[in-house]
Amino acid sequence: xxxxxxxxxxxxxxxxxxxxxxxxxxxxxxxxxxxxxxxxxxxxxxxxxxxxxxxxxxxxxxxxxxxxxxxxxxxxxxxxxxxxxxxxxxxxxxxxxxxxxxxxxxxxxxxxxxxxxxxxxxxxxxxxxxxxxxxxxxxxxxxxxxxxxxxxxxxxxxxxxxxxxxxxxxxxxxxxxxxxxxxxxxxxxxx
Length: 191
What we know:
Blueprint: E1 2-4, E2 13-18, H1 26-36, E3 40-45, E4 54-59, H2 72-81, E5 91-96, E6 99-106, E7 109-112, E8 118-120, H3 124-134, E9 143-148, E10 154-156, E11 170-172, H4 176-181, E12 186-189
Parallel strand pairs: 2-3, 4-5, 10-12
Antiparallel strand pairs: 1-2, 3-4, 5-6, 6-7, 8-9, 9-12, 10-11
Organism: Mesorhizobium alhagi CCNWXJ12-2
GO molecular function, one term: catalytic activity
Pfam families: PhzC-PhzF
């Protein structure tokens, strides 16, 4: 078991990791997850795609409704610690529900760019909805793009006004009403 998403002990997300579980059925994995009763249980498995070095399944007990924010680097660290041997010295490929995630290894660190479910420009209607929801004037929305990597949420950076008044950048996290109004995040940023 490890504590992820925190620098200090006991302030992060407790996660159980299981290696060598290739013979377990899904219901067995769910039973183990229920028994651990943690935020999530991850299972390291042989890959099903030839490009991947290993595969990860994130298992939640059936009665848990957990926001899935996978720690690709933690899974990679656990796989390496369990004796995993990557095909490449500087890049490790993890297969997971998001697809193939390339993880770089160097200077004692693991780094990655999360796969995006959706990217590119929003439609005019989507942008109008986002501006209305975030109370941003048309002139303050200098640019917008989808930055969707899974969890619902919003990121917003307002443009500085010519009058010298500057709004602070805001990071907004999901609440149910937002999901009803607009299901996925849009980034509105300054130029």
